[in-house]
Amino acid sequence: MVNFNGNLVSSQDTLFTSENRGYKYGDALFETLKVVNGKIFFWEDHYFRLMASMRIMRMDIPMSFTMEFLENEILKTIKANDLLSSSARVRLNIDRGEGGKYLPSENSKVTYSIITEGFDEPFYTVKEGQTYEVDLYKDFFIAPGLLSGLKSNNKAIQVIGSIYAKENDLNNCLVLNTNKSVIEALNGNLFLVKGDKIKTPPLEDGCLKGVMRKQVLEVLSKDVNLYIEEVSISPFELQKADELFITNVIQGIVPITKYRKKTYGCQLAKDLTNKLNARIRLGA
User: Fold this and answer.
1) Please, which of 15, 68, 76, 213 could form a disulfide with 189 given CB 3.0 to 4.6 Å?
2) What is the pLDDT of residues 88-130, one digit of tens each?
3) Of 54, 68, 76, 110, which Cα lies nearest the Cα of 6?
4) Alpha carbon 161 to chain centroid distance?
5) CB neighbours of 205 closer than 8 A, spacing ≥ 6?
6) What is the pTM of this model?
7) Running DSSP on this structure, what letter comes out for residue 105?
8) How many angstroms from the chain centroid is the CA of residue 121?
């Protein structure tokens, strides 16, 4: 079952017409959520990111879009799909409905849909001995700026880059901005570890304002033995690193084990994963 504007309908039914602005112009945003036993991980951070993104997109935010309302709609959809007592991946879609060309018509209004699917792993793990190889994706580049960091329906580079990765037997690719700085992976934020120094690209470079990125930065900030920087990363730094890892809400922390001829450890990634799971259990 899919939740379309509060109505539970079969996923086989047509939810949108060809006039939907998300379909026609990418005039849409989405949040990918992890829900375990009826608890939405980091829901407050997701909600405030969504509201900030809607304001940047100049969407008229409905008065009903409170944190409690959307949470209830998500859980209603989870329950309708018999996933309330298990783990689920949820996509909350927000678009501007129908009407207009590039300029929305006065009749266009925000609509939402919620899609769920079962997910096997309730908590985050780092899989020992698993190879995770990446390379740079250099066919296209992302423009620096906060607009590039929105979780919008315009994901052409991520789609083409994923096809490129599959064609080249890679697990993922690292994306560059137009300044040729490494800003993120195709499906998550990037962290680089060298000794006691940890770097992650700043939002101004064009990377996603990731919810898991925020959690990891908060955990790292509590360790007085580590020095954290939000600073641009050059491709030349990658092979000098001790660890590289990718973060996203669904998988948590994914250690990169190989980039070209360089292999990496994953000790900090494992330690961070344990601390993240502890935060989740404590409801932090």
Assistant:
1) 213
2) 999 999 999 999 999 999 878 999 999 999 988 888 999 878 8
3) 76
4) 16
5) 144, 177, 179, 181, 183, 232
6) 0.94
7) P
8) 17
Q: Which amino acid is at 50?
A: L
282 pLDDT more than 90: no
In tens, the pLDDT along 207-254 reads: 999 999 999 999 999 998 999 999 999 999 999 999 999 999 999 999
Residue 64: which residues within 8 A CB-CB, separation 6 or more? none
**Distance between CA atoms of residues 275 and 128, nearest Å:** 17
CB 87 within 8 A of CB 34: yes
Reported as half-sphere exposure (CB side, CA atoms, 13 A), residue 39 has a value of: 11
| Whole-angstrom distance, CA of residue 173 vs CA of residue 62 | 37
**Residue 115: CB partners within 8 Å, gap ≥ 6?**
2, 3, 11, 77, 90, 91, 93
Write the DSSP assignment of 109-160 as a string of letters. --EEEEEEEE-S-SS----TT---EEEEEEEEEEPSSGGGGS-BS--HHHHH
- Between 9-13, 25-29, 35-39, 175-179, the lowest mean confidence (pLDDT) is in 9-13
Separation CA 52–CA 201 (nearest Å): 20
User: What distance, in Å, lies between the first and last C-alpha atoms of the chain?
Assistant: 31
In our burial notation (b when 16+ CB lie closer than 10 A, e otherwise), range 63-72 reads eebeeeebbe
The single residue listed with the structure tokens 């491709």 is 235
Tokens 């998550």 identify what position?
188
CA dist 66 and 62 (Å) reads 9
